[in-house]
Specification:
The protein has nine helices and 26 strands. By secondary structure, the protein is an alpha/beta fold. It has two domains: about 140 residues, FAD/NAD(P)-binding domain, CATH 3.50.50.60; about 210 residues, FAD/NAD(P)-binding domain, CATH 3.50.50.100. The longest helix is centred in the C-terminal third of the chain and has 27 residues.
Length: about 400
């Protein structure tokens, strides 16, 4: 009798932790494990805002999958997923197909522009290593061209960020760290640079308590960021954006050389297109993280939605919850293969930290509020803890943010 075939699609936080833990939990005689991913690397999604601003090199955010997984236990396939054929237990790839007995869906997110006119064509979004690199290169090009291009305009030095959630505010924090260096490098008066954030909500960082959110806003404003709260981007153009304040009659044009949209993401379209039961594009998983309409399919990360109880709001799709989902899915797959009952998912909320550049931050960790440098240090500890769990001390020392060497 052949071994059960476990197929993991997507090498995000949930997919990678599932894969690494399965290789530890199961022996070669227990199951055949295959991981499929579009790229040959895994990357830290929560570091992309730094790469986009240029405060770290984009290579720092990623690591080759073959250097993280146990290649003696896991077969890696670099390919793009086209569709899941759940009736026949197959995944259709761009260059072939793979059969499975158990499937783990961890396909991640896509940018959500909410139908705003021109946003897809004229704004950047931070959604991958390549898009982050493109943003950094674009910003540097605008600064490099300012004193050399006869057609350069002052508005080329204006940066508009759409959204003041976690991604938007962390990106703003990196920008205020990066801009002074760019101005020195390209002989630009820093007073000519404008950083404008447009947010539809009346406050920044809605998930955080008001005092922490206000601390973040005050810090960024002290560094020159202009917030337009209760204001919506209505259209993006080659020259900038049109915005409108709530209840205002007219739109305002903001001319800008760079527009970066951080205002929302949505789950990969593939589960819904493949016929799975979804809730706003996400698979509403059962208490052991399986698809409600297919006991052989698990979902983790951005494609999964977990409700703490009936009638309650779902848990936010963070890296923290994706890692915990990956840990449980690995254990539950082992239970199924061994003929044991599965475990229920219990989310252990350890807290949330937002960086405001390299030396500032806010957060709540185990119910303790942090501001300033302690929060920034804790963010680095959290990042390095993930690397330690994923690939051990060696990976943490190579890629981590705390200088142990």
């Amino acid at each position: 009798m052949s071994n059960p075939r476990i197929l993991i699609i997507g090498a995000g936080y949930g997919g990678m932790i599932t894969t690494v833990n399965l290789a530890k939990e199961l022996s070669p005689d227990d199951a055949d494990i295959t991981l499929v991913n579009k790229h040959n690397y895994h990357y830290q999604t929560t570091w992309l805002h730094e790469a986009a601003a240029g405060t770290i090199h984009h290579d720092r955010t990623r690591m080759l999958i073959k250097n993280v997984i146990n290649t003696n236990r896991v077969h890696f396939v670099q390919d793009s997923v086209v569709k899941i054929d759940k009736d026949n237990k197959k995944v259709i790839l761009k260059n072939g197909e793979l059969s499975y007995d158990y499937l783990v869906v961890g396909l991640g997110f896509e940018s959500n522009t909410f139908g705003i006119k021109g946003l897809s064509e004229h704004a950047f979004s931070i959604r991958s290593v390549n898009t982050a690199r493109k943003i950094r290169e674009h910003i540097e090009y605008k600064f490099a061209s300012y004193n050399n291009d006869p057609d350069a305009k002052d508005s080329d030095l204006t940066l508009v960020v759409g959204g003041a959630g976690l991604s938007g505010v962390e990106f703003l924090g990196e920008l205020v760290d990066r801009i002074p260096g760019l101005c020195r490098e390209y002989d630009i008066d820093q007073n000519k640079v404008k950083i404008i954030d447009v947010e539809g909500m009346p406050m920044v960082l809605p998930p955080f308590e008001r005092d922490l959110a206000e601390y973040a806003q005050r810090y960024l404003e002290s560094k020159g960021v202009i917030f337009k709260l209760g204001t919506f981007i209505k259209e993006a153009t080659p020259d900038g954006v049109f915005v409108q304040k709530k209840d205002a009659e007219k739109m305002e044009e903001i001319k800008a050389g760079t527009v970066v949209w951080t205002g929302g993401v949505k789950a990969s379209h593939i589960p819904a297109d493949s016929g799975f039961k979804t809730n706003r594009g996400k698979i509403p998983v059962t208490d052991d993280l399986r698809a409600p309409d297919d006991d052989h399919v698990f979902a983790v990360g951005d494609v999964a939605v977990v409700f703490p109880a009936e009638g309650k709001r779902p848990y936010p799709p963070t890296a923290q919850i994706a890692v915990q989902e990956g840990e449980l899915v690995a254990r539950n797959l082992k239970h199924l293969i061994k003929g044991e009952p599965t475990e229920k998912f219990v989310y252990k909320k350890r807290g949330t930290v937002a960086s405001l550049g390299n030396h500032q931050g806010i957060g709540v960790v185990y119910d303790k509020k942090l501001k300033g440098k302690p929060a920034a240090a804790m963010k680095k500890v959290i990042d390095d803890r993930y690397l330690l769990e994923l690939g051990g001390v060696g990976l943490m020392l190579r890629k981590g943010k705390l200088n142990f060497l």
